[in-house]
Amino acid sequence: MNYHIALSYFVKITPRRYQKMIAYFKTAKNLWEAEIVELIQVGLNEEIAHEFLNWRDNFDIEKTQKELEKNKIKTICFDEPQYPKLLKEIDDPPICLFYRGEIPKDSAPCLGVVGTRKNSSYAKVACEELVEQLSNKNVVIVSGLAFGIDSIAHSATIKKQGLTVAVLGSGVNDKNIMPRNNLGLARDIINSGGAVISEYPPGFEASKITFPARNRIIAGLSLGTLVIEAPEKSGSLITAKFALEYNREVFAIPHSINSKLGIGNNNLLKMGAAPVTDADDIVDALNLNQLRLPKSNTCIQLPTIQAKIYSCLNKNPKHINLIIKETGLTSSQVGSELILMEINGLIKNLGNNNYIAK
Questions:
Q1: Cα 149 from chain centroid?
Q2: Which helix (H) or strand (E) holds 31?
Q3: CA angle 191, 125, 130 (to 5 degrees)
């Protein structure tokens, strides 16, 4: 086993500590074989140094390697040429990545997509539309497998047969994937050609510390980060902060001034984040002109009743009762026409009789 991989199992040697120690010991093998005096001399806390030596003496490298192979968990370390180039550029890149599936090649442009776990219907629609358009153009969507916007972004990508990467704050083995209800989604990501990755070894459980830490990897893997929806205090803003620190682009979808869920987005826009109302906004900002999305010049002539219904719809959900009131049509007329319009892809039913224009 690569000594970098073995050392990754002792998580108290953080990436920053690791960089300092490798600079001193020159190789991972030398670090693995170091004695207590050397470890303390390089700046490792004496208590942690003793803990490391006790752990090392009981760590079975051969057994661990077999377990990785058995669970089809692959690794890639910082000193290997396949390590993601963009991630290598950040201040504290992971020592190693543990992953299932396939990590995208450096030639594939990646975009971080993040947002609140308790999203609005407006954010869901916006996320799906943008992600589906970008997936059609082979942009890899990177997110965190959390409930809400993360899950929507992953699912929308898979729906369009695109590639998506989920970055975890836990081990990538089935038992430790969080949230548990997204285990099926994680498997779908892997089966669709994407990857589930982590800097933490199999068996490692997520915590309040590891989730913010994994956000730096989402930002580090990506050319830019798109914030779909974020309250004033949101983990998504941590990812945006990392993106700024790494000199990467930050994008935000504008929200209503009355939206509490969108306060974080509007604040990002005030501070200079790029506003996004169309996928081409991202394509232009990242200089991915070869991916420019084609504009449709087709004008559809709708029947009178459908045109009347369509004219009162936009991207904000509207209940059928309000549509009836605004159009002056009967409930049976509106109900039957809405079904036809949905079949033809003109509108979208968000559930509970709420509709938007597509």
A1: 9
A2: helix 28-32
A3: 65
Q: Supply φ then ψ for residue 268, to 5 degrees.
A: -60, -40
The structure tokens listed for 337 are 């026409």
Q: Find where tokens 């192979």 sit.
A: 69
Query: Which pTM value belongs to this model?
Result: 0.82
Rama region for 26: left / alpha / beta (φ>0; ψ in -120 to 50; rest): left
In angstroms, rounded to a whole number, what is the distance separating the alpha carbons of residues 230 and 227? 7
> How is residue 188 written in tokens?
């779908």
User: What one-character DSSP code corresponds to residue 289?
Assistant: G
Q: Is the pLDDT reported for residue 325 higher than 60?
A: yes
Distance CA 338, CA 358 (A): 13
Q: Are 52 and 10 in contact (CB under 8 A)?
A: yes
- 253: its two tokens: 């979808």
Do 202 and 98 contact (CB within 8 A), yes or no? Answer: yes
DSSP labels, 119-167 = --HHHHHHHHHHHHHHHHTTPEEEE---TTHHHHHHHHHHHTT--EEEE
CA gap 4, 320 in Å, rounded: 59
Q: What is the pLDDT of residues 58-75, one digit of tens each?
A: 999 889 999 999 999 999
CB 213 within 8 A of CB 241: no
How long, in residues, is the chain?
358
pLDDT in tens, 152-211: 999 999 999 999 999 999 999 999 999 999 999 999 999 999 999 999 999 999 988 898
Q: Single out the residue of 231, 267, 237 nearest to residue 123, CA to CA.
A: 231
Q: Dig out the tokens for 145 from the structure.
A: 């497998």
45 or 352: which carries more pLDDT confidence?
Answer: 45
